[in-house]
Amino acid sequence: MIELGGGAAAPVGDLIKDVNEDTFMQDVVDASQEVPVIVDFWAPWCGPCKTLGPALEAEVTAAKGAVKMAKIDVDQNQMIAGQMQVQSIPAVFAFYKGQPIDGFQGALPPSEIKAFVERVIEAGGGDASGGLDDAIEAAAVMLEEGDASDAAQTFAAILEEDDQCVAAYAGLARSHLAMDEADQAEAVLNGVPAEISGDAMIEAAFAQLELARQAAQAGPLAELTAAVEANPDDLQARFDLATALNANNQTQDAVDVLLEIFRRDREWNDGAAKTQLFTIFDAIKPEDPIVLNGRRKLSSMIFV
């Protein structure tokens, strides 16, 4: 397992400062030579500033030193506001290497604020993920190499740092599935925040969960093969064989059996073969040859 959050974060006072005309050069222009500095022009009477400011501060704090923030009261610092041609507030500028590189005016939703801060960090050559991308990649390697327990612990630690991380939710669910813990995997997926629940990685993990539950109920492969050979027209036997094949990691064979069911009777059992094919396709990487060839063959049958 990879330990996260072990490094000392920069004190908030070093990351976020109230800046005036006397300290602007030091705290913005000079400071931006090392890391980007986001400048927030605000005023106590500005309603939108009261929500934008704290949201920016939260994102800057979460970046742990990859970006800094300067807060400038326009009523007290009219000369700087005039030099920056601030027409209305809130107005936000990002400085790097002494020059403004990005900015916006008015309030933004949280997702766009986060995206802005990440963009600024990346423009300064920093890691907008705070190192989490490396941890996600390492956890994925653990899972691929069969170390599901450590992978699960690492994905869980990543979620403690970023509870909007799609890859960590999907990875944690897959880790539980690898340990035959379908109920835990389902609990993880059901706990995904609504705003990211439609992501392709989450949908793929749900498909993998469905296939895992089917695998637990799959019959003996040899018996099902014999049943199909004895009665080739028994589509239920073919479907059960496909389930057993997929449970035995013979995914291509399972797809072939399902395609044959669809060829024989596409409407059988309310289109069960097609539904199962899509479940398998969703569970595999889209670029996998099994998916590409399977979708092509299915399409050719549908549009005959």
TrEMBL record:
Gene3D superfamilies: Glutaredoxin, Tetratricopeptide repeat domain. The gene is trxA_1. The keyword Methyltransferase does not apply. GO terms for biological process: cell redox homeostasis; response to stress. One of its GO terms (cellular component) is cytosol. This is Thioredoxin-1. The keyword Lyase does not apply. Signal peptide: none annotated. InterPro entries: Thioredoxin-like_sf, Thioredoxin_CS, Thioredoxin_domain, TPR-like_helical_dom_sf. It holds the Pfam family Thioredoxin. Keywords: Disulfide bond, Electron transport, Redox-active center, Transport. It comes from the Bacteria. GO terms for molecular function: protein-disulfide reductase activity. It comes from Planktotalea frisia.
